[in-house]
Amino acid sequence: MPPRPLDGCWPAGSFPDLGAVASQWQFLRIVNKSGFSAARLDKIDPWAAVMLAHAGFVWLYSVLDRPRRGLWNNGFRIGVSSAILVWFAYYANRPHPEYLYSFAGMYGCLWIDVARVVVAGSRRAVPRLAVAGALVIGGVFALPTTLKACLDHFRFDRSWHEMTATAHTSMKSVCGLALPADERTDYLIRKAEYLRLRTATNRQVFFTVDSYLIPKAAQVWPDLSVADPFWECLTENRFAAVMAELRRKAPSEILFDEEVSIKLPNEPPRTERKHRQFLVQLRVELANDYQRIGSEAGWEIWHRRITE
Protein backbone atom coordinates (compact mmCIF):
# COMPACT_ATOMS: atom_id res chain seq x y z
CA MET A 1 0.00 0.00 0.00
CA PRO A 2 1.28 3.52 -0.71
CA PRO A 3 2.28 5.82 2.16
CA ARG A 4 -0.71 6.91 4.22
CA PRO A 5 -1.27 10.67 4.27
CA LEU A 6 -1.47 10.76 8.07
CA ASP A 7 1.61 8.65 8.82
CA GLY A 8 3.69 10.39 11.48
CA CYS A 9 1.37 13.40 11.52
CA TRP A 10 0.30 16.07 13.97
CA PRO A 11 0.49 14.11 17.31
CA ALA A 12 4.14 13.37 16.54
CA GLY A 13 4.88 17.00 15.70
CA SER A 14 4.91 16.83 11.89
CA PHE A 15 2.43 17.90 9.24
CA PRO A 16 0.42 15.28 7.28
CA ASP A 17 2.10 14.10 4.08
CA LEU A 18 -0.16 15.73 1.50
CA GLY A 19 1.98 14.33 -1.30
CA ALA A 20 0.83 10.83 -0.35
CA VAL A 21 -2.82 11.68 -0.99
CA ALA A 22 -2.51 11.27 -4.77
CA SER A 23 -0.58 8.02 -4.35
CA GLN A 24 -3.18 6.68 -1.94
CA TRP A 25 -6.00 7.68 -4.29
CA GLN A 26 -4.27 5.90 -7.20
CA PHE A 27 -3.90 2.76 -5.10
CA LEU A 28 -7.57 2.81 -4.07
CA ARG A 29 -8.63 3.21 -7.69
CA ILE A 30 -6.52 0.20 -8.71
CA VAL A 31 -7.89 -1.93 -5.87
CA ASN A 32 -11.46 -0.91 -6.65
CA LYS A 33 -11.03 -1.51 -10.38
CA SER A 34 -9.18 -4.80 -10.17
CA GLY A 35 -10.89 -6.41 -7.21
CA PHE A 36 -7.48 -7.07 -5.64
CA SER A 37 -7.77 -9.42 -2.65
CA ALA A 38 -11.19 -10.50 -3.90
CA ALA A 39 -12.71 -12.99 -6.31
CA ARG A 40 -15.97 -13.43 -8.12
CA LEU A 41 -18.67 -15.77 -6.84
CA ASP A 42 -18.83 -18.22 -9.74
CA LYS A 43 -20.55 -21.01 -7.82
CA ILE A 44 -21.96 -21.59 -4.35
CA ASP A 45 -20.12 -24.08 -2.19
CA PRO A 46 -22.73 -26.31 -0.47
CA TRP A 47 -20.81 -26.39 2.80
CA ALA A 48 -20.62 -22.61 2.84
CA ALA A 49 -24.38 -22.42 2.32
CA VAL A 50 -24.97 -24.98 5.11
CA MET A 51 -22.78 -23.08 7.56
CA LEU A 52 -24.34 -19.73 6.74
CA ALA A 53 -27.90 -21.06 7.04
CA HIS A 54 -27.11 -22.97 10.24
CA ALA A 55 -25.42 -19.99 11.90
CA GLY A 56 -28.24 -17.69 10.86
CA PHE A 57 -30.86 -20.06 12.27
CA VAL A 58 -29.00 -20.50 15.56
CA TRP A 59 -28.55 -16.75 15.97
CA LEU A 60 -32.21 -15.96 15.25
CA TYR A 61 -33.54 -18.80 17.40
CA SER A 62 -31.27 -17.89 20.32
CA VAL A 63 -32.24 -14.22 20.17
CA LEU A 64 -35.96 -15.05 20.13
CA ASP A 65 -35.70 -17.71 22.84
CA ARG A 66 -36.68 -15.44 25.75
CA PRO A 67 -36.92 -18.12 28.49
CA ARG A 68 -33.25 -19.05 27.95
CA ARG A 69 -31.93 -15.61 27.05
CA GLY A 70 -30.02 -15.20 30.31
CA LEU A 71 -28.38 -18.63 30.26
CA TRP A 72 -24.69 -18.91 29.44
CA ASN A 73 -25.15 -21.62 26.79
CA ASN A 74 -27.64 -19.47 24.93
CA GLY A 75 -25.20 -16.55 25.07
CA PHE A 76 -22.47 -18.87 23.80
CA ARG A 77 -24.62 -19.86 20.81
CA ILE A 78 -25.30 -16.20 20.00
CA GLY A 79 -21.62 -15.35 20.29
CA VAL A 80 -20.41 -18.19 18.05
CA SER A 81 -23.11 -17.73 15.42
CA SER A 82 -22.54 -13.95 15.39
CA ALA A 83 -18.81 -14.50 14.85
CA ILE A 84 -19.50 -16.85 11.93
CA LEU A 85 -21.96 -14.45 10.32
CA VAL A 86 -19.61 -11.47 10.64
CA TRP A 87 -16.52 -13.44 9.59
CA PHE A 88 -18.45 -14.86 6.63
CA ALA A 89 -17.84 -11.56 4.85
CA TYR A 90 -14.20 -12.70 4.52
CA TYR A 91 -15.27 -15.82 2.63
CA ALA A 92 -17.80 -13.88 0.53
CA ASN A 93 -14.96 -11.55 -0.54
CA ARG A 94 -12.87 -14.51 -1.72
CA PRO A 95 -15.23 -17.49 -2.17
CA HIS A 96 -12.69 -20.28 -2.33
CA PRO A 97 -12.81 -23.62 -0.43
CA GLU A 98 -9.47 -22.83 1.23
CA TYR A 99 -11.08 -19.94 3.08
CA LEU A 100 -13.63 -22.22 4.73
CA TYR A 101 -10.88 -23.65 6.94
CA SER A 102 -11.03 -20.70 9.28
CA PHE A 103 -14.68 -21.50 10.04
CA ALA A 104 -14.00 -25.09 11.05
CA GLY A 105 -13.37 -24.40 14.73
CA MET A 106 -16.34 -22.09 15.22
CA TYR A 107 -18.70 -24.23 13.21
CA GLY A 108 -17.49 -27.27 15.12
CA CYS A 109 -18.92 -25.66 18.27
CA LEU A 110 -22.34 -25.38 16.62
CA TRP A 111 -22.12 -28.95 15.40
CA ILE A 112 -21.25 -30.22 18.88
CA ASP A 113 -24.21 -28.28 20.24
CA VAL A 114 -26.52 -29.84 17.63
CA ALA A 115 -25.16 -33.32 18.38
CA ARG A 116 -25.71 -32.73 22.11
CA VAL A 117 -29.32 -31.68 21.53
CA VAL A 118 -29.94 -34.64 19.22
CA VAL A 119 -28.41 -37.11 21.65
CA ALA A 120 -30.49 -35.66 24.47
CA GLY A 121 -33.57 -35.89 22.29
CA SER A 122 -32.85 -39.52 21.48
CA ARG A 123 -33.85 -40.36 25.01
CA ARG A 124 -37.31 -39.13 24.04
CA ALA A 125 -37.60 -41.63 21.21
CA VAL A 126 -35.79 -39.57 18.55
CA PRO A 127 -34.64 -42.12 15.96
CA ARG A 128 -31.06 -43.21 16.35
CA LEU A 129 -30.61 -42.55 12.65
CA ALA A 130 -30.81 -38.81 13.37
CA VAL A 131 -28.03 -39.14 15.94
CA ALA A 132 -25.89 -41.11 13.52
CA GLY A 133 -26.59 -38.57 10.77
CA ALA A 134 -25.48 -35.65 12.93
CA LEU A 135 -22.28 -37.47 13.90
CA VAL A 136 -21.51 -38.42 10.30
CA ILE A 137 -22.05 -34.86 9.03
CA GLY A 138 -19.79 -33.45 11.70
CA GLY A 139 -17.21 -36.19 11.22
CA VAL A 140 -17.13 -35.82 7.44
CA PHE A 141 -16.81 -32.03 7.47
CA ALA A 142 -15.70 -30.47 10.73
CA LEU A 143 -12.95 -32.89 11.82
CA PRO A 144 -11.17 -33.50 8.46
CA THR A 145 -11.40 -29.82 7.50
CA THR A 146 -9.95 -28.72 10.83
CA LEU A 147 -7.15 -31.28 10.68
CA LYS A 148 -6.27 -30.34 7.09
CA ALA A 149 -6.19 -26.65 7.98
CA CYS A 150 -3.92 -27.33 10.96
CA LEU A 151 -1.60 -29.49 8.82
CA ASP A 152 -1.39 -26.89 6.04
CA HIS A 153 -0.60 -24.09 8.47
CA PHE A 154 1.97 -26.26 10.28
CA ARG A 155 3.78 -26.93 6.99
CA PHE A 156 3.65 -23.26 6.06
CA ASP A 157 4.98 -22.14 9.46
CA ARG A 158 7.75 -24.74 9.35
CA SER A 159 8.88 -23.75 5.85
CA TRP A 160 8.77 -20.07 6.84
CA HIS A 161 10.85 -20.78 9.94
CA GLU A 162 13.40 -22.75 7.91
CA MET A 163 13.59 -19.92 5.40
CA THR A 164 14.22 -17.27 8.06
CA ALA A 165 16.23 -19.37 10.52
CA THR A 166 19.57 -18.41 9.01
CA ALA A 167 21.23 -15.76 11.16
CA HIS A 168 21.78 -12.44 9.43
CA THR A 169 24.39 -10.05 10.68
CA SER A 170 22.85 -7.03 8.98
CA MET A 171 19.46 -5.91 7.78
CA LYS A 172 18.11 -3.54 5.14
CA SER A 173 15.00 -1.42 5.38
CA VAL A 174 12.60 -1.70 2.42
CA CYS A 175 9.35 0.23 2.71
CA GLY A 176 9.65 0.17 6.47
CA LEU A 177 10.34 -3.58 6.63
CA ALA A 178 13.61 -4.94 7.98
CA LEU A 179 14.80 -7.54 5.44
CA PRO A 180 17.99 -9.64 5.51
CA ALA A 181 20.83 -7.89 3.73
CA ASP A 182 21.19 -10.72 1.25
CA GLU A 183 21.15 -11.19 -2.51
CA ARG A 184 17.37 -11.47 -2.78
CA THR A 185 16.81 -8.16 -1.00
CA ASP A 186 19.39 -6.51 -3.27
CA TYR A 187 17.56 -7.86 -6.30
CA LEU A 188 14.23 -6.66 -4.93
CA ILE A 189 15.57 -3.10 -4.63
CA ARG A 190 17.15 -3.23 -8.09
CA LYS A 191 13.96 -4.60 -9.67
CA ALA A 192 11.86 -1.87 -8.06
CA GLU A 193 14.26 0.83 -9.26
CA TYR A 194 14.24 -0.65 -12.77
CA LEU A 195 10.43 -0.52 -12.85
CA ARG A 196 10.38 3.05 -11.58
CA LEU A 197 12.74 4.21 -14.33
CA ARG A 198 11.01 2.27 -17.13
CA THR A 199 7.51 3.34 -16.15
CA ALA A 200 8.54 6.98 -16.38
CA THR A 201 8.39 6.58 -20.18
CA ASN A 202 5.76 3.86 -20.71
CA ARG A 203 3.30 1.68 -18.79
CA GLN A 204 4.71 -1.70 -17.83
CA VAL A 205 3.26 -5.20 -17.51
CA PHE A 206 5.16 -7.35 -15.03
CA PHE A 207 4.63 -10.50 -12.98
CA THR A 208 6.49 -11.27 -9.76
CA VAL A 209 6.19 -13.44 -6.67
CA ASP A 210 7.00 -10.30 -4.66
CA SER A 211 3.72 -8.82 -5.86
CA TYR A 212 3.30 -6.69 -2.76
CA LEU A 213 6.77 -5.38 -1.96
CA ILE A 214 8.01 -4.58 -5.47
CA PRO A 215 5.01 -2.43 -6.48
CA LYS A 216 5.12 -0.79 -3.06
CA ALA A 217 8.83 -0.01 -3.35
CA ALA A 218 8.57 1.14 -6.97
CA GLN A 219 5.20 2.90 -6.57
CA VAL A 220 4.27 1.19 -9.84
CA TRP A 221 1.46 -1.28 -10.49
CA PRO A 222 1.07 -3.58 -13.52
CA ASP A 223 -0.80 -2.09 -16.46
CA LEU A 224 -3.64 -4.59 -16.07
CA SER A 225 -7.11 -4.67 -14.53
CA VAL A 226 -5.74 -7.06 -11.89
CA ALA A 227 -3.00 -6.20 -9.44
CA ASP A 228 -1.84 -9.81 -9.02
CA PRO A 229 -3.24 -12.57 -11.28
CA PHE A 230 -2.05 -15.33 -8.94
CA TRP A 231 -4.29 -14.19 -6.11
CA GLU A 232 -7.17 -13.04 -8.27
CA CYS A 233 -7.40 -15.79 -10.90
CA LEU A 234 -9.01 -18.40 -8.67
CA THR A 235 -11.10 -19.84 -11.52
CA GLU A 236 -10.43 -20.84 -15.12
CA ASN A 237 -12.86 -18.19 -16.34
CA ARG A 238 -11.02 -15.47 -14.43
CA PHE A 239 -7.64 -16.64 -15.76
CA ALA A 240 -9.04 -16.72 -19.30
CA ALA A 241 -10.30 -13.15 -18.86
CA VAL A 242 -6.84 -11.94 -17.82
CA MET A 243 -5.24 -13.74 -20.77
CA ALA A 244 -7.78 -12.17 -23.10
CA GLU A 245 -6.96 -8.74 -21.68
CA LEU A 246 -3.24 -9.34 -22.24
CA ARG A 247 -3.80 -10.35 -25.85
CA ARG A 248 -6.10 -7.39 -26.40
CA LYS A 249 -3.62 -4.86 -24.99
CA ALA A 250 -0.73 -6.67 -26.67
CA PRO A 251 2.08 -4.93 -24.71
CA SER A 252 5.37 -4.90 -26.55
CA GLU A 253 7.21 -6.06 -23.43
CA ILE A 254 6.42 -8.20 -20.38
CA LEU A 255 8.67 -8.72 -17.37
CA PHE A 256 8.96 -11.87 -15.25
CA ASP A 257 11.11 -12.68 -12.23
CA GLU A 258 14.52 -13.95 -13.22
CA GLU A 259 15.09 -17.16 -11.28
CA VAL A 260 18.28 -15.92 -9.63
CA SER A 261 16.45 -12.88 -8.24
CA ILE A 262 14.04 -14.96 -6.14
CA LYS A 263 16.54 -17.49 -4.90
CA LEU A 264 16.23 -18.49 -1.24
CA PRO A 265 18.66 -20.35 1.05
CA ASN A 266 15.93 -22.89 1.87
CA GLU A 267 12.84 -24.22 0.15
CA PRO A 268 10.30 -21.41 -0.32
CA PRO A 269 7.01 -21.47 1.60
CA ARG A 270 4.09 -23.41 0.10
CA THR A 271 2.29 -20.29 -1.13
CA GLU A 272 5.37 -18.97 -2.93
CA ARG A 273 5.96 -22.36 -4.55
CA LYS A 274 2.42 -22.23 -5.96
CA HIS A 275 3.02 -18.64 -7.06
CA ARG A 276 6.14 -19.66 -8.95
CA GLN A 277 4.32 -22.57 -10.60
CA PHE A 278 1.58 -20.19 -11.68
CA LEU A 279 4.10 -17.85 -13.32
CA VAL A 280 5.69 -20.79 -15.12
CA GLN A 281 2.28 -21.71 -16.51
CA LEU A 282 1.73 -18.07 -17.48
CA ARG A 283 4.97 -18.12 -19.48
CA VAL A 284 3.76 -21.26 -21.28
CA GLU A 285 0.45 -19.58 -22.13
CA LEU A 286 2.25 -16.56 -23.57
CA ALA A 287 5.00 -18.47 -25.40
CA ASN A 288 3.18 -18.35 -28.74
CA ASP A 289 3.00 -14.56 -28.67
CA TYR A 290 6.15 -13.63 -26.68
CA GLN A 291 9.74 -14.77 -26.45
CA ARG A 292 12.46 -14.12 -23.91
CA ILE A 293 15.19 -11.90 -25.30
CA GLY A 294 17.36 -11.47 -22.21
CA SER A 295 17.40 -10.27 -18.63
CA GLU A 296 18.25 -7.13 -16.73
CA ALA A 297 18.18 -6.06 -13.06
CA GLY A 298 16.62 -9.37 -12.00
CA TRP A 299 13.87 -9.33 -14.65
CA GLU A 300 13.35 -11.70 -17.54
CA ILE A 301 12.50 -9.50 -20.53
CA TRP A 302 9.94 -10.95 -22.93
CA HIS A 303 9.17 -9.18 -26.22
CA ARG A 304 6.23 -9.68 -28.50
CA ARG A 305 6.97 -11.91 -31.47
CA ILE A 306 7.02 -10.14 -34.80
CA THR A 307 4.46 -11.65 -37.13
CA GLU A 308 5.37 -11.73 -40.78
Would you mind describing this structure in some detail?
Helix content is 56%, strand content 9%. The chain is α+β, with helices and mostly antiparallel strands and 308 residues long. The chain folds into two domains: 46-163, no CATH class; 170-304, no CATH class. The protein has a four-stranded mixed sheet with strand order 3-4-6-5, with no helix packed on it. Helix 2 packs antiparallel against helix 3 and helix 3 packs across helix 4.
Concise structural overview:
This protein is α+β, with helices and mostly antiparallel strands and 308 residues long.
Features:
single chain; 10 helices; 2 domains; disordered N terminus; 4-stranded mixed beta sheet; two-stranded antiparallel ribbon; 308 residues; alpha+beta; elongated
Number of domains as seen in the coordinates: 2
Strand content: 5-15%
Q: N- to C-terminal separation? A: 43 Å
- Helical content class: 55-70%
**Poorly predicted ranges (pLDDT <50, ≥5 residues)?**
1-12
Produce the secondary structure layout.
Layout: H1 19-34, H2 46-64, H3 72-93, H4 104-122, H5 128-164, E1 171-174, E2 177-180, H6 183-199, E3 205-207, H7 213-218, H8 229-232, H9 236-249, E4 253-257, H10 270-286, E5 290-296, E6 299-304
Parallel strand pairs: 3-4
Antiparallel strand pairs: 1-2, 4-6, 5-6
